[in-house]
Amino acid sequence: MARHSSLKLLAEDPEDLSVVSAALQDAVAKIGDIAFEPKARRLTIVFNRYRWEAGGGERVRAALQLGSVLNVQAKRLRRDAPSAVIELLALNFEPGEAPGGVVTLNFAAGGDLRCQVECIDAVLADLSEPWPTRRAPTHGD
After folding, report:
1. How far, in Å, CA of 7 to CA of 10, rounded?
2. Positive or negative torsion for Cα 48, 90, 121, 10
3. Model confidence over 14-54: pLDDT tens digits?
4. CB atoms within 10 A of CB 30
5. Taking a C-beta distance cutoff of 8 angstroms, is the pair 127, 61 a contact?
6. Nearest alpha-carbon partner for 116 in 47, 67, 65
7. DSSP string, 36-61
8. What is the DSSP letter of 7?
9. What is the rounded distance in angstroms from the CA atom of residue 105 to the CA atom of residue 115?
10. What span, in angstroms and rounded, lies between the C-alpha atoms of 128 and 66?
11. Residue 88's closest CA among 133, 37, 28?
12. Helices and strands (DSSP H and E) totals, the chain
């Protein structure tokens, strides 16, 4: 039996997506941990998520999967550097033709992933036991 409660969230509207965004704030990943499967219309990213809900001080391996993805555009993310570390700041949704729109993953240093979606269909799930971390995320002005 796990000592902690694993987070599992489903987002189907902008309010749900804001909860997923809060849970993923300051999560880090490597560019090589981003996988877009065009035929399956699925984007998956594996993160080391900071566990804000546990009072901080630990991270956990977690995966975000976006479904119903029509296309993905990257800005200021170096696909030729798969080991480069990126830090997620927020997920945002810009409505388009209902129920679709664009889900944008905003990363530190100005990078982003824009995902055109038919609808909001996101799942976030913890994959591992948490581990302690000495470094808490900091936010400069």
Report:
1. 10
2. positive
3. 999 999 999 999 999 999 999 999 999 999 999 999 999 98
4. 16
5. yes
6. 67
7. EETTTTEEEEEEEEE-GGGTSSEEEE
8. P
9. 8
10. 20
11. 28
12. 1, 11
Please give the DSSP secondary-structure letter assigned to residue 16: H
Please give the single-letter amino acid code of residue 116: Q
- Decide: 50 and 26 in contact? Cβ < 8 Å: yes
CB < 8 Å & 24+ apart, contacts of 36-40: 36/69, 36/72, 38/71
Residue type, position 13, single letter? D
Extract the tokens encoding 80: 């030729």
Question: Residue 79, SS3?
Answer: coil
Report if pTM > 0.85: yes
- Token pair, residue 99, equals 């129920």
Confidence band for 100, pLDDT divided at 50, 70 and 90: very high
- Tokens for 121, please give them: 């269909």
- Whether residue 126 is predicted with pLDDT greater than 90 in this model: the reply is yes
Q: Which residue has the tokens 């902008």?
A: 14
By C-alpha distance, which of 86, 103, 16, 5 is closest to 51?
5
